[in-house]
Amino acid sequence: MGVTPIHAIAPEHATHHGTPRCSACSLRAICMPPELTADEFARLDALICTTRPIRRGEALYRTGDTFQSIYAVRAGSFKTVVMHRDGREHVTGFQIAGDPLGLDGICAGKQNCDAIALEDSVVCIIPFAQLEAICREMKPLQHHIYQLMSGEIVRESRQMLLLGTMTAEQRVATFLLNLSKRFKARGFSSAEFHLRMTREEIGCFLGMKLETVSRMFSKFQREQLVQANGKMVRIVDPEGLAQV
Amino acid sequence: MGVTPIHAIAPEHATHHGTPRCSACSLRAICMPPELTADEFARLDALICTTRPIRRGEALYRTGDTFQSIYAVRAGSFKTVVMHRDGREHVTGFQIAGDPLGLDGICAGKQNCDAIALEDSVVCIIPFAQLEAICREMKPLQHHIYQLMSGEIVRESRQMLLLGTMTAEQRVATFLLNLSKRFKARGFSSAEFHLRMTREEIGCFLGMKLETVSRMFSKFQREQLVQANGKMVRIVDPEGLAQV
DNA sequence: CGAGTCCTTGACCTCGATCAAGCGGTGTGG
DNA sequence: CCACACCGCTTGATCGAGGTCAAGGACTCG
């Protein structure tokens, strides 16, 4: 069976690979500041004039690549992986449609992690130097970029809290509820979804081994909190899950 | 004995509390983009016209406070603490002279953590709305702020790697080497320094209990890697520490 | 249909948490 | 000025959550 992303872009946009338009994008509300004028959208459309398809398992960028653009996930999903010189790996995040990618590269002019597609995916390419130029003239967009980056900082500090203080059980519960919330924000079911990542990748994100992740799924199943069948997950009792 | 910060600002600046000047600040190289003209510095000095002293144990801001400004540590040191509704706490970072504070507040317009002074300290106050305005006109400063925020993202993802994959021993070693590097970058000794935080705060930052932190200090002492006497730390064998 | 991946489950072990005791330095009140 | 209380730190003994190792099952893909 081919890989068909559940969270796909609408077909009428998918055909416009050469000329995507933010002004017409279904992810506009997630990606973009709300109060842009038609004229401002036109300038954005001129900036973000290319998309790029990435096959499952391939890298959008790798650690050390020269930083030039940031990206927005248009369809599909990614993981970002940082690596220690001794080979230790850690997944720092999973990005789905509407999420930004590449913000870590601005700092040193080189990407600081690998971004790997979890399924066949498409990203919008946003040349950063040009984005900066437009931001100097478009206050709402400028502020939006600051918010985006600050949001990433907040997300990561929450993840540190999770890694630093929670039990394996609480981490997995938090992970599922977070995914659920994000799917809901994008108009998909918050109760039932398809995990695009393996147990090992989840474990690597949550700071535990894949066996432990599996055991927690089984435990939640037994306690009637979720129904998990391989990568299909159905959240039965979100409140119960939240107070694990 | 009073609390005398080792890493103090030079006396001639300490007296200028009402009118700090970036152009004359010893932390300029850490805080600011390198290539500003005199004119540009003048505009910055006009923006950052106030400092604020914070006593040991007091908060610069708390979670939920309305976000208006970002800050730069001018003297002293801070910890940032996030809290889960159930009371679980986690230290997300320690900030010393030259480090930024408050970037997490841009996202939601409210601060997302508590920033607590570890000793009597002074911060520079940078009103964010005005900073944004200046950034629209000063390209190097604009880029610097993006780099600052990206740097915070990178720092946090390194901390996630630490929390997710390292043993207690490796975490403490990494922590000491990181502090050492930062002190060195500010012109202080990289070999010997005074910890301003308690074992408990270190543990809370590294995802372990204070007893474990203490045991690791003792272990490193036995192995001749560091000499630790309460809060005074001397790094004897940085290479050895690095390959723990 | 067979090989490879991914997932689940069991048995055992280890690292770090927990509990507990004691020490040294500091600040405070008599 | 001393006694005492408190806080932060160290160290030992014990325990348990999660890691490790191993076996087998379910799916996918060539």
UniProtKB/TrEMBL annotation, chains A, B:
Q: Keyword set for this entry?
A: DNA-binding, Transcription, Transcription regulation
Segments forming domain HTH crp-type: 166-239
- Pfam (any one): cNMP_binding
Concerning InterPro entries, the annotation shows: cNMP-bd_dom, cNMP-bd_dom_sf, Env_Response_Regulators, HTH_CRP, RmlC-like_jellyroll, WH-like_DNA-bd_sf, WH_DNA-bd_sf
A single cellular component GO annotation: cytosol
* GO MF annotation terms: DNA binding; DNA-binding transcription factor activity
According to the lineage, what is the superkingdom?
A: Bacteria
Q: What is this protein called?
A: Fumarate/nitrate reduction transcriptional regulator Fnr
Q: What lineage does UniProt assign to this protein's organism?
A: Bacteria, Pseudomonadati, Pseudomonadota, Betaproteobacteria, Burkholderiales
Q: What is the gene called?
A: fnr
